[in-house]
Write a structure and sequence with these properties.
11 helices; single chain; elongated; mainly alpha
Length: 302
């Protein structure tokens, strides 16, 4: 299992166990309404690792294990962790906005034509009572991971209980989003932060679109140049560099056999191919200093 996915599972499980040992951990680490007295900005991170019951954590961790390990393998650990936490933070922000409008509707129903200045004054007076609006759970981040899987492998077929036939990942994601939107708009009062789920998917969608756009720009901007560069390398590899068919001169005047010469050339070409492939995927700026030096040293050889 990839490192970040494994550690996220461990941290969530340890935090769940800690909830039975440390009284009030959910009150401290849960995401409070920003007008409540117990609100703290760090709660945008801590709330993602707290859960309200076994069912809550089980389904979140199962989805994280199922889809997170795949996306981490595709993206790499750093990018995956950034995406996961960002979706969680984005989910929290959307939840805060939803709670603000809910608060406004509640107050305006009691005080018609209430102004924003009056609204904030009322919130200040009721700051203690507003602490009951407390959000916990990794669902926002997990829904972001689900969206990432659907966008990365849209035609991957999956069996989802109790459906008797497989369904493509893209339709699964769309179905989940539509279902969450329906539940959020139905005002069911089920105690589930449906807007946070949608928020995680929304932030994930914009991040992936941005990354895909950047990758497309890098590919189109330098594709022709690096393809041409690679063709030149391949042509040079085919040209005999020494007249002696058995011995070849190395840098510094040393001699090497045909086997050593061919092995060195093959290793150099494989390294150049790896560097060029890395540029196509992540752009030139992703190269290390040593990789840049290798690329341009090779391009200057005749």
């Amino acid at each position: 299992m990839p490192t970040v996915t494994k550690n996220l599972l461990i941290i969530n499980c340890l935090a769940f166990i800690a909830g039975f040992i440390v009284p009030g951990i959910a009150d401290w680490g849960g995401l409070h309404f920003f007008l409540a007295s117990d609100f703290n900005i760090i709660q945008f991170i801590t709330y993602q690792f707290l859960h309200g019951g076994f069912t809550h954590i089980f389904f979140n961790m199962f989805a994280l294990w199922m889809f997170g390990r795949i996306m981490e393998s595709v993206w790499g650990s750093k990018k995956f962790l950034f995406y996961y936490l960002s979706c969680g933070v984005g989910a929290g922000l959307i939840q805060e906005v939803a709670q603000f409008f809910e608060f406004y509707y509640i107050i305006s129903a009691q005080v018609p034509n209430v102004s924003f200045s009056e609204l904030f004054q009322i919130a200040k007076n009721e700051a203690g009572a507003l602490n009951s609006w407390n959000t916990i759970g990794a669902s926002g981040a997990v829904y972001g991971i689900l969206l990432a899987f659907g966008m990365t492998f849209p035609n991957e077929r999956m069996f989802i209980f109790p459906l008797p036939v497989p369904i493509k990942a893209k339709w699964l994601v769309i179905g989940y989003a539509a279902f969450e939107l329906f539940l959020a708009s139905s005002s069911s009062g089920d105690g589930v932060a449906h807007m946070a789920h949608l928020g995680g998917m929304l932030f994930g969608f914009f991040m992936i679109r941005y990354w895909n756009k950047q990758a497309s720009f890098n590919r189109s901007g330098g594709q022709d140049f690096f393809d041409s560069l690679k063709r030149n390398f391949e042509q040079r590899m085919k040209k005999p560099e020494q007249k002696n068919p058995n011995m070849h001169a190395e840098q510094g005047g040393a001699k090497e056999t045909d086997w050593e010469y061919n092995a060195r050339k093959k290793a150099n070409q494989e390294e150049i191919d790896r560097i060029l492939d890395k540029i196509r995927v992540s752009g030139y700026d992703s190269l290390t200093k040593e990789e840049k030096k290798t690329l341009f040293d090779s391009s200057n050889k005749s």
